[in-house]
UniProtKB/TrEMBL annotation:
<dbReference type="Pfam" id="PF13853">
    <property type="entry name" value="7tm_4"/>
</dbReference>
<feature type="transmembrane region" description="Helical">
    <location>
        <begin position="24"/>
        <end position="50"/>
    </location>
</feature>
<keyword id="KW-0472">Membrane</keyword>
<keyword id="KW-0716">Sensory transduction</keyword>
<keyword id="KW-0297">G-protein coupled receptor</keyword>
<dbReference type="InterPro" id="IPR017452">
    <property type="entry name" value="GPCR_Rhodpsn_7TM"/>
</dbReference>
<dbReference type="GO" id="GO:0004984">
    <property type="term" value="F:olfactory receptor activity"/>
</dbReference>
<protein>
    <recommendedName>
        <fullName>Olfactory receptor</fullName>
    </recommendedName>
</protein>
<feature type="transmembrane region" description="Helical">
    <location>
        <begin position="205"/>
        <end position="225"/>
    </location>
</feature>
<keyword id="KW-1003">Cell membrane</keyword>
<dbReference type="GO" id="GO:0004930">
    <property type="term" value="F:G protein-coupled receptor activity"/>
</dbReference>
<keyword id="KW-0552">Olfaction</keyword>
<dbReference type="InterPro" id="IPR050427">
    <property type="entry name" value="Olfactory_Receptors"/>
</dbReference>
<feature type="domain" description="G-protein coupled receptors family 1 profile">
    <location>
        <begin position="41"/>
        <end position="287"/>
    </location>
</feature>
<keyword id="KW-0812">Transmembrane</keyword>
<comment type="similarity">
    <text>Belongs to the G-protein coupled receptor 1 family.</text>
</comment>
<dbReference type="InterPro" id="IPR000276">
    <property type="entry name" value="GPCR_Rhodpsn"/>
</dbReference>
Amino acid sequence: MGQVNTSIVPEFVLLELTQSFGMRTFFCFFFSLFYVAIIFGNLFIVFTVVFDSQLHFPMYILLANLSLVDLGLSSTTVPRMISDLFTHCKVISFHSCMVQMFFIHVMGGVEMVLLIAMAYDRYTAICKPLHYLMIMNPRKCMVLVIAAWVIGMIHAMSQFIFVINLPFCGHYSVGSFYCDFPRVIKLACMDTYKLEFVVTANSGFISMCTFFFLIVSYIFILVTVRKHSSIDLSKAFFTLSTHITVVVLFFTPCMFLYVWPFPTKSLDNFFAIVDFVVTPVLNPVIYTLRNKDMKLAIRRLSRKVLSSMEIT
């Protein structure tokens, strides 16, 4: 894994979020509370989908995988963020930095594909309801999930193989509270213009193109429904508004982090916190509070748990 790098760069220095003790205490409480909510909220969705047979449909299988990805994405950064708030020397080893970057982009790539798959699922359910079960069969759903993980791995590896062998020397400050490809690349003691463009294209332009593709696809669904029935349009919009909200929450920080030409530390930190802390806790809330089937499944699961407790 790069002997030259590990011998020259034993560790990177991470950025301190704030020097104020009061703000560190606030961030510690904020991150801890949200991380606990992320764990329980996303695992609750996974368990509900797994144990409720009435949710064994493509939409909810994809949703369960999205919850697992949100949990994994947060776990790559949030525990480290919390532990670093009250440590004087905020350093991360070369190996830990590489692992963190790799899994951030694996999870990000998987989530991107899952959101596309969920858009396709909604298009089929709304625009081709009579053929839905034939088109979105269990086999195709499994293929979509596997494809998401494969593409996520390829997305991360296509950048990781270049960064892992970069020569680092001199300045080791990452300039952020977590490791990411654009920031680590700038620390290399060589011309990295072409590599920076590859990372921007891989993470930034792809995110931007996927975002606009999803928004256009949702608009297309609404236009298609409107041609058939104005009553169905309101139902379709209510259903799609949940998906559109999740898409905006996920892709907006990605586009600012990787495409925005005038980055600042404060803006980058804000969008990173939104991506790692806020969005993963909002997704379960959005999907459970605005989904009738999920709310019914939660009630059924609650009754089962209560009845089992009464028996014991």
